[in-house]
Every structure is written in structure tokens, then in C-alpha cells.
Specification:
alpha/beta; Spore Coat Polysaccharide Biosynthesis Protein SpsA, Chain A; 2 domains; five-stranded mixed sheet; two-stranded parallel ribbon; 7 strands; disordered C terminus
Length: 417
């Protein structure tokens, strides 16, 4: 297996950059090619610094696109990194496994680069491991959210990054333009993976971490219907096993052959995420899938204790409208604005309306909108909708209203009726 080293990013600290390039020069025997790629003005600085270091080629990536000040910061970060990484990969050319580090990677040493190359070579010699990109850490809050500070890119992954269709990134929610997601999901989109994986990536996974599970379920239905989350989760895990390896897993597998990593290497590389091996990634997403299924069943059954009514959301358009309405209310509450705006007629007549009112009342309680919250619950009760959670919420609202009506002296002393 052949290796190349790609250094990208701004030269913010000359001493750190000198340390990085000195380590790269000392490890030059391990690499087919070493390239530094940065903005043109940074490359001019680097060339003067590396005048006597002929082992490193300097490549200019032009300048950052002149995006407006209101541009999404995550998107700006991705475009900047993509511009430099793509230029660097083209300068290196196909056919090698690329280790990409940043210009400010003070923790990179020649000894560590040597050890990493040994690990990659051993993984490349195993049929079940070869051809996979290596990742440092991961999050279970969204698929393909891997640490991108140091990247170990297989030839297939390099091709996918170079082939990213920038217009296609709008298939994901515009608030999810995270570089980590876009770089690593490029493998899935390049392969035009069938089934649910593309939809699973398009799902706004932040909804999974809201207290309001109705929002999550409504969003899930709007994206891929009833069973899409679980199916997409399973496909993502299969794809991850087929295309990625964790550095910690490789160390555990091959440390008996090449020894333990240089002191401090793993703690300096693997310290920004909370998942560092494949088994934990698999179990975490399987748990997410089970929790979502439980939430889905809870929301979709919606059985009232006092009635025999069961609400069902079978119309995908209604699910989309419910998601939009809940988002509008959430933003209004967060901004301290009026969140009592009327529910759209189609929603108010849908069987899910009582659940939406319940969560609207819960949001209002959180910002002191007790009277409006009580009115929403009262409407539900008039329609025969009652659950223990709603009864508890009503009790909390009434207690808050009573406290609000007490004279300040009584509240302070604990006296009341």
C-alpha cells in the first residue's frame, strides 16, 4: 500500500507549522508524495519557509469564495475545507492512501506518522479491511458524523470527495451543512446507495434529541414514512462497517505486531467525540432505532384513557404540515413571541390535533404562558382527550397560575389558601 500526506489549512502559527512540516520531512520516506495546500497568500509564506525542504510540494487553492456575512458558518467551513482538500488531492493524484492533517496539527510527529503508516499497511494487507477509510471518532447524533481533523482517506473516498456535486448538498436540511457529515457521507452519495440510506441522511437528526417526540415522529413520517428510520439506520450501519475502520480498533488488532502507539498519540488524536470503536457505534445507533420505534408507537397509538379514540397519521401531507407548524411554534417560543397562533384548519380537524395542542401547551408553560396553555388543554378536555401526562401538565399550570395570583408576601412566606 502506498501513502501520501496532505497538509491543509491556514498558517496561523509559524512555530506550529514549522513543527508540522519538520515532522513531515522526517517521515518523508514513508510517503510517495507530501503536499501542502492552502490559500495563495498562505502558500507564498509556506514556500519561503520551506525553501530548503524539497520533500514538500506547495499548491495554491486560490482564495475563499466571497460569501456574504449572513452565510451559514458550517457551509462556509465546508466550502473552505473542500476547496483546499480537493486541490490537494488532485495534486497528489490517484492510487495512494492519503493521510490528511491540518497545518496547526501540533500533535503530529514523525514517530506518530510512521506508526500510522504501519497500521494502514497492515490493514491494507487484510482482505476484510483493505480499501476502507479510517476514522478517529464518531457521534451517534447523526450518521456519518466522524472526526475530520485528521483524515485517512481510501482511494475510493478521495474519488467521492472530488466528485461531490455541490448543488446536491441541498438535499439535506440547510442547517446541517456540517463538514464532517458532508465529507464522510460523500461515499454513500457517490455510490448512489439504494434503499433508505439517502433518506436517512436527509432526516434532520436533531429532532431525535428534542424532548418533544411528536416533532421527531412527524418529521420522520414527512421524510420516509412509517418504517424508514429503522430501515435507514440498519442500512447506515451496514454501510459504515463496509467502508470505515476506527483507529482504536486497528490499534487493538495490530498492536501485538507493531507494538503500542507512541506515548500520547491516541489521547491527542481521539479526544473530540464520544465513540471510538465500531461496536459502540453499532450499539448506539441500534439503541437510537429502538427508541425511535418506541416513540413512534407511543405517538401513533395516542390512546386516550377516557375515550376509545385513536389518532393515526396516514396522510404524509398532514405530517409535513404538522412538522412545519410545530417548528413555527418552537421558534416563536424560543424568541419569546406569541405562540398561540391558530392551528391550520386541516390540522385542527385531523386526529392528531389534541397531541399538537398538548405540546403547544407544554411549550407555553415553559415561557410563562399559563393562561393560553390552560385554554389549549381545556379545549382538548372538551373534545374528550385526556391522558395522565396532560392531566399532570394541567395541574402544574394551575399551580403556577395560583402562585401568580397570590400576594407577594404570601408567596415569600409560603402562606396561601
Amino acid at each position: 500500500m502506498k501513502f501520501s500526506l496532505l497538509i491543509t489549512g491556514q498558517v496561523r502559527n509559524m512555530a506550529v507549522f514549522e513543527g508540522v512540516t519538520s515532522s513531515a520531512k522526517a517521515a518523508a520516506d514513508f510517503f510517495e508524495k507530501i503536499v501542502y495546500c492552502g490559500w495563495d497568500d498562505q502558500v507564498a509564506t509556506a514556500k519561503s519557509l520551506l525553501a530548503h525542504n524539497t520533500s514538500i510540494e506547495c499548491v495554491g487553492a486560490g482564495y475563499l469564495l466571497p460569501l456574504g456575512s449572513g452565510a451559514e458558518s458550517s457551509l462556509v467551513s465546508f466550502l473552505a475545507q473542500h476547496q483546499q482538500i480537493s486541490c490537494g488531492l488532485r495534486a497528489i493524484g490517484p492510487g495512494t492512501f492519503v493521510i490528511r492533517i491540518r497545518a496547526d496539527s501540533a500533535h503530529i510527529t514523525a514517530e506518530r506518522l510512521h506508526y500510522l503508516c504501519q497500521l494502514m499497511a497492515l490493514s491494507g494487507s487484510r482482505h476484510d479491511l483493505q480499501g476502507k477509510s479510517v476514522v478517529l471518532g464518531a457521534s451517534d447524533r447523526a450518521p456519518f458524523f466522524f472526526d475530520d481533523r485528521t483524515m485517512f482517506l481510501s482511494p475510493l473516498h478521495q474519488s467521492a470527495i472530488l466528485g461531490i456535486d455541490l448543488s446536491s448538498i441541498y438535499r439535506v436540511d440547510p442547517v446541517n451543512f456540517f463538514p464532517e457529515f458532508l465529507f464522510y457521507s460523500s461515499l454513500a452519495f457517490a455510490n448512489k446507495s439504494p434503499g433508505r440510506l439517502t433518506e436517512f441522511c436527509s432526516f434532520d437528526h436533531r429532532f431525535r434529541h428534542y424532548e418533544n417526540c411528536v416533532q421527531s415522529v412527524m418529521h420522520g413520517i414527512s421524510v420516509f414514512g412509517e418504517n424508514g428510520y429503522g430501515e435507514g439506520c440498519a442500512e447506515y450501519l451496514e454501510f459504515a462497517k463496509d467502508h470505515f475502520l476506527f483507529l482504536a480498533d486497528l490499534v487493538a488488532e495490530f498492536s501485538s505486531d507493531i507494538g503500542h502507539p507512541p506515548e500520547g498519540m491516541m489521547s491527542s488524536l481521539c479526544n473530540s467525540f464520544h465513540i471510538y470503536n465500531m461496536n459502540v457505534l453499532l450499539s448506539s445507533f441500534e439503541r437510537n432505532s429502538q427508541e425511535y420505534r418506541s416513540e413512534f408507537d407511543t405517538v401513533m397509538s395516542g390512546v386516550s384513557e377516557n375515550t376509545s379514540s385513536v389518532f393515526r397519521v396516514t396522510d404524509k401531507e398532514i405530517a409535513v404540515e404538522a412538522k412545519s407548524y410545530l417548528n413555527t411554534l418552537r421558534r416563536a417560543v424560543a424568541a419569546g413571541q406569541d405562540s398561540t397562533q391558530p392551528m391550520p384548519e386541516r390540522l385542527s380537524s385531523a386526529s392528531i390535533a389534541p397531541i399538537i395542542r398538548f405540546y403547544q401547551a407544554k411549550s407555553l408553560k415553559g415561557v410563562g404562558g399559563y393562561e393560553a396553555g390552560k385554554a389549549l388543554i381545556s379545549k382538548n378536555l372538551d373534545l374528550g382527550y385526556s391522558t395522565p401526562r396532560q392531566d399532570d401538565l394541567l395541574q402544574e399550570i394551575e399551580q403556577a397560575l395560583n402562585s401568580k395570583l397570590k400576594p407577594e408576601s404570601q408567596v415569600a412566606s409560603g402562606r396561601g389558601e
